[in-house]
Amino acid sequence: MVEIVEENGRKIFVQDNAIQVVVGPYPNEVKHTHVYALPKEILTGEPPEKLVVRLNIDPALAQLTRPNGTPIWIKGAAVITIGPPGPTDHDAAKAVLIVGSLHQAVREDVSTARRIINEHGGRL
User: Fold this and answer.
1) Residue extents of the structural domains in the chain
2) Which residue would you say has higher pLDDT here, 62 or 2?
3) pLDDT grade, residue 17 (50/70/90)?
């Protein structure tokens, strides 16, 4: 179990294995971190880099790069599919991962993203 302080100051406890994605603010957003502990999305003010270190999840979350150049951390075993980007994905995207219902484009190509995910507990 890990403790996460939500943006409203409420402390919650989440099972380590429930955390599937950690990502910083989306473009044009107030600075906060999104933690996807599916099916719940948790918003916290803790910087994502510090949160990922503090969570100390085993195996470690895989770090990839969003199309906007910022990092995203993904639980390898939670990735359902990986493939090339579609016509509606960002121009900088070279691969798309599906984690639960989350569609995440990344800058790494499919081969590289697959290798990184598999090195962190994925089975693709």
Assistant:
1) 2-119
2) 62
3) confident
What does the CA dihedral 43, 87, 122, 25 come to, rounded to 10 degrees? -20
Per-residue model confidence (pLDDT) at position 79? 97
Spatial distance between the Cα atoms of 16 and 1, rounded to a whole number of angstroms: 6
- Cβ neighbour number for residue 58 with a 10 Å cutoff: 9
Three-state SS across 32-48? CEEEEECCEEEEECCCH
For the domain 2-119, what is the CATH code? Answer: 2.40.50
Residue type for 35, please?
Answer: V
User: Tokens 């359902």 label which residue?
Assistant: 80
For residues 106-120, average pLDDT: 98
